[in-house]
């Protein structure tokens, strides 16, 4: 498995300064969640370092990957924001030889979530959503819920994302709806 220093060296030149600082906060938030909820700390931290690897790739380059490897067909129809997660996993595999399927899955699902997320996937997904630099409406609610329930916090993050997208009349990626529906039964009081 790669070291964190190797992962940081790969992402630093791929990210703008503010995005790299976001990545550092995601790593620390994920580490805190790992302390609270368990999971494979090494894989969680590695995926957290690498999660935004493709954030600044050209949309055309990423759309060309649709239907290949970890990148679903038709992904671009849901906006460019989703491309970087799935494409990041695929590009890390192709360009740097990352082979750990669990880490690749954490990277691929960090924006959308998915039904049946592993504990580690939930941690990376939520850490990206609630890291301290996130100041959008609802971030604090999800942050507070993360103190007592990983699933409830993830469900809230998904619900807020769905509400945000539907309020703007934007399509919701099916994996996001599936993740919400998967987590909801265990989080209803």
Automatic annotation (TrEMBL):
E.C. numbers: 3.6.1.41
Reactions catalysed according to its record: P(1),P(4)-bis(5'-adenosyl) tetraphosphate + H2O = 2 ADP + 2 H(+)
SMART domains: HDc
GO terms, molecular function: bis(5'-nucleosyl)-tetraphosphatase (symmetrical) activity; metal ion binding; nucleotide binding
Entry keywords, A to Z: Hydrolase, Iron, Metal-binding, Nucleotide-binding
Keyword Iron-sulfur set for record: no
This protein's name: bis(5'-nucleosyl)-tetraphosphatase (symmetrical)
